[in-house]
Specification:
By secondary structure, the protein is mainly β. The protein is built from one helix and 23 strands. 3% of the residues lie in helices and 41% in strands. The model has no long low-confidence stretch (mean pLDDT 93).
Length: 283
């Protein structure tokens, strides 16, 4: 129900683990929609379009640790017009007891700017981590904004993310580590997953590659964490078989492979990271 022959990425669960929000798109990211699926016994229900999505390019759904907010990325207009924005901003919806989600709300400045903001991830205390393109620092980097008296403070560039391109941060609910994507750190594929640990003295460790079998020669993107931070979700377009065929295929086998789940389009994967601390040199 979740990973199919379509193009799926992102995964964010409600605190009870019963509902998962994720994105479906065409491979060119021309039309992106947020969908959800509920757990029913040992199965999942057929995905449905989230009530706040379905018109604009909506992606990167992230449920807050307390389940009271859901942040997402969108190019929807802020001025109420029918013209999409030329950049992506961060939006959110509030959980209304017994009624579902509120109408979408634009996060506003100083988090959103004239450039792109994507992939918001929030701690229990409300500190927001996100990827952004800012004119004063070319490239895509990871920023954080603290929640002070209900308002977000001016974003701070994370010290390890001042060069190259880092994006799609997933922050642990207790702010103890962040997992993100990098394309410029000499990884195995087009994009690899890395971790940096947030020290008690508020410094950040040098990012480390999560290694095999999480990272591959393919592209790993769209990170997410379970509510207890023990499961990592990510998307990959890996093909789980030899890329060079052993024998010539006929059209039936060709079509079967193109329509298979692992057909080279993005799928969502999960992996237990309860032993993640082993990558922390300070422990």
């Amino acid at each position: 129900m979740i990973s199919t022959s379509d193009f799926e990425f992102n995964a964010s669960f409600t605190p009870d683990g019963k509902t998962v929000y994720f994105s479906k798109s065409d491979p060119g990211f021309n039309r992106i929609t947020i969908v959800l699926s509920h757990r029913k016994g040992n199965d999942r229900t057929k995905p449905e379009v989230a009530r706040f999505s379905g018109i604009w390019k909506d992606t990167d759904p992230r449920v807050s640790p307390d389940g009271k907010k859901l942040f997402f990325t969108s190019n929807r207009p802020v001025d109420g017009s029918n013209t999409p924005k030329g950049d992506y901003d961060i939006w959110y919806v509030d959980r209304i007891p017994a009624k579902g989600w509120s109408e979408p709300k634009h996060l506003g400045a100083p988090v959103n700017s004239d450039g792109n903001e994507w992939y918001a991830s929030v701690t229990r205390e409300g500190t927001l981590y996100f990827g952004a393109e800012r004119a004063d620092h070319p490239g895509t980097h990871i920023y954080r904004s603290r929640l002070v008296d209900g308002e977000y403070s001016p974003p701070e560039l994370l010290p390890f993310s001042n060069q190259g391109n880092d994006l799609a941060p997933s922050i642990a609910a207790d702010d103890s580590f962040v997992i993100f994507i990098s394309r410029d750190r000499g990884g195995r594929g087009a994009g690899d997953l890395y971790v940096s640990f947030h020290r008690p003295d508020r410094t950040w460790s040098t990012p480390k590659n999560l290694g095999s079998p999480i990272n591959s020669s393919f592209h790993e993107i769209a990170t997410g964490l379970s509510p207890d931070n023990r499961i990592l979700y990510f998307a990959s377009h890996r093909i789980d078989r030899l890329l060079t065929r052993a024998a010539r295929v006929n059209y039936r086998k060709l079509e079967h492979g193109l329509h298979a789940i692992q057909n080279g389009l993005l799928n969502i994967y999960e992996v237990d990271i309860s032993d993640l601390d082993r990558l922390d040199d300070a422990r």
